Amino acid sequence: MILVADPKAEYLAHADAIRAAIDRVLASGHYILGAEGDAFEKEFSAYQGGGHTVAVANGTDALELALRAAGVGPGDGVATVANTVTATVSAISEIGARPVFVEIDAATMVMSPEALAAVFARERIKAVVPVHLYGQPAEMPRLVEIAARNGAVVVEDCAQAHGATIGSRKVGTWGALAAFSFYPTKNLGALGDAGAVFTQDPALAEKVRLLRQYGWRTRYVAESRGRNSRLDEIQAAILRAKLPHLDAGNAQRRKLSARYLERLAGTSLILPAVLPGVTPVYHQFTVRIPRRDHLRDALQPRGIACGILYPVPIHHQPAYRDPALSLPVTERACAEVLCLPCHPQLDLADVDRVAAEISAWLAANGAGQK
Ligand SMILES: *Cc1c(COP(=O)(O)O)cnc(C)c1O
Fold it and tell me: In 3D, which of 196, 198, 194, 197 has the Cα closest to residue 235?
């Protein structure tokens, strides 16, 4: 079976380093917020090109604490997209803020700067949360400029884009703050829940640090409100073992994606578009086809498991339903997207097999060529 993500194969590829990391923590006698967490924060900051990392319990918490550190609170409007995992929006709504959905660009499927400008013309927005969906960076220079002009803060959702760049700058360095998830299937994944807030502003980093542990600066004394969103030492040590391999994993994802683009060119599939000057990291390799469920169901018995990220836009989900809101580009994307297997433990032969099965299905179903 060719899987859309394979955390076990990923573990086995780094098993010796991961087991050594776990043993080191077990022997240390220190299991939460210690030397491993501190070291991971430094190493991840260096990976980002300098700045401050605050490791937290998961990516949703990272978004929530970043927004709170940025001063977002009850009643504030937060602009984001509706073709994302529910987590992006639950982080906004759990702090009492109000998600405001912005239409996406049809080609790249990330937040449209024009649509964001139109939202600002209509209502008060305190923060903007662009999502670098599938590892494709959103158009940060323009989004940041529009937000700044309107006095809003930008918090990047980098959960799918560790290591992606725009020009020479990594995602996570464009907004005031950024949230990363290290869920096991992400480009940098732990073996449990983990996340981090990244910022270049030491004062914001300090705020997040207080928020992640009861508002404590000094032990047992709360200086601000805060909760528990600590990262444990085992996950931090595992992330330290895997961080040095992130760039190679991303390079392999790009190599597989280039092969997909070559093999599927000329078919009726809509292939992922890449903005000029951008290096994506292909958390997912996502194609579009009107009858995507048929194609997915045809590939499954042939040993190929595809993903659908995401089938239901947030404004159509029961908890966030907004019948008055129409986002035709987003809705159509959610109906058509199909994520093909693309992760570092696959090789070119796997891609060739997937592409051949897809081409055969398209030909048999009268949709072979453009
Ligand atoms: C995974 C993910 C999150 C949430 O991260 P968790 O660690 O699962 O809380 C948020 N946003 C996006 C885009 C994600 O892919």
Answer: 194
**Which residue ranges in the chain fall short of pLDDT 50?**
none
Q: What is the pLDDT of residues 144-200, one digit of tens each?
A: 999 999 999 999 999 999 999 999 999 999 999 999 999 999 999 999 999 999 999
Residues 6+ apart with CB under 8 A from 275: 108, 136, 137, 139, 166
* 124 in Cβ contact with 348 (< 8 Å): no
Percent helix / strand / coil, the chain, rounded to 5: 45, 15, 40
* Ligand 1 contact via 181 beta carbon (within 6 Å): yes
Residue 178 Cβ < 6 Å to ligand 1:
no
Residue 211 amino acid letter: L
Give the H or E element holding residue 15.
helix 15-28
Asked whether the CA dihedral 245, 248, 254, 259 is positive or negative, the reply is negative
Q: How many angstroms does the Cα of residue 286 sit away from the middle of ligand 1?
A: 17
| Close Cβ partners of 331 (under 8 Å, ≥ 6 residues apart) | 313, 316
Distance 219 CA to ligand 1 centre (A): 30
